[in-house]
Amino acid sequence: MRVGMGEDLHRVDPSRTLVLGGVTIEGAAGLAGHSDADVLLHAIADAVLGAAGKGDLGAHFPSSDERWHDADSAVFLAEALRRAREDGWELANVDATVRAERPRLAPHLAAIRERVAAIAGVETSRVNVKAKSGEGLDAVGRGEAIGAAAVVLLEAAPRK
Fold this sequence. Notes:
Elements: E1 2-20, E2 23-31, H1 39-51, H2 57-60, H3 74-86, E3 89-99, H4 109-120, E4 127-132, H5 138-141, E5 145-156
Parallel strand pairs: 3-4
Antiparallel strand pairs: 1-2, 1-5, 3-5
């Protein structure tokens, strides 16, 4: 088994649509970034790459590469998992936390959890997503940014 940790943080950009965990949250200010700026999928993909010993998200999907401009971050997670599977690893579970002052995420957590599981190709029971506010502290608490952190457990894939 291997454990990986990932995190991401993006500034709020009211001109963009918010995407978290592959779910579009209508009416909420989006995030600045080269891709769709999905901090949750970025954190999970980074954790997968870390657990698999494959570096980080920026090494595989650099913002300097125009192929990733406005890209759907589901591609990043799917590709990180594909690369881990090439080396014989499967996703056992993911536990993630999104830090946001706005919008209120509780009504969206079930959909986000289901979408992350679908992208990863695992049962929903293997994915946990929580939301925390910034309590008025730091850039998240002031509503200037949204962040996410994730921990994944990879396990050796069954031999075929």
